Every structure is written in C-alpha cells, then in structure tokens.
Amino acid sequence: MADIFTTVQSSDLKVGRLVSIVGRVENSHESGVYISDEKNRVKITNIPRGTTGLIEVRGNVVGNLQIDNQGFTKFTDEEFNFETHRRILDFFKRFPELTSIKN
C-alpha cells in the first residue's frame, strides 16, 4: 500500500504524521536544510545540503518543526504566493480526503 502524505502548513505539524509541505530553503545544517513557509522555520533531514529555492517535501514529522525527508520536489516558480497557498489549504481542511497525495 502506498504511503499517504497530508498537505499541511508548518503550524499543523504533529509528530508521527506523514506530511507534504511547501517552503523556501533558508539555509543548510549538518544533515539537510531549513525551509520556511513564512510562518515557521522547519528542519528537514536526509536531504542534500546543496538544495536551494522553493521545494515541496514529503516525509515523517519526527520532532517539533522537524521532518525526515522521504522525497522532495524542487519548483522553478520563484513567485510562489504563500498567502494563496494558505487559503487553499484552509479551504481543503474542510475536505480532508482531498488534501492527501500518494507517493
């Protein structure tokens, strides 16, 4: 059976949950990078330190604002609008079955 990753904002991260989150890489750390979705900074582990720009990360929440990467996508759209993204996610919170993707 395929893993299901729920699309969330950083404020909705809960330990043990499989999530998908979009953020802009701010800088790197010893085992990955930090991303920001304009609300919080999230530590991503098991991702190449040289990763830059806007990314969508799929992984397991392993700690407070920390995700263990299981796959990611780099976007070329540098004009990404986080406010619009937040509004869409808030809308889909009413319909949870529409906010999950299979990996």
TrEMBL record:
Keyword Ribosomal protein applies: no
UniProt subcellular location: Nucleus
Chief location: nucleus
MF terms (GO), sorted A to Z: DNA binding
GO biological process per UniProt: DNA recombination; DNA repair; DNA replication
Record GO cellular component, one term: nuclear lumen
Keywords recorded for this protein, A-Z: Nucleus
Protein family: Belongs to the replication factor A protein 3 family.
Protein name in UniProt: Replication protein A 14 kDa subunit
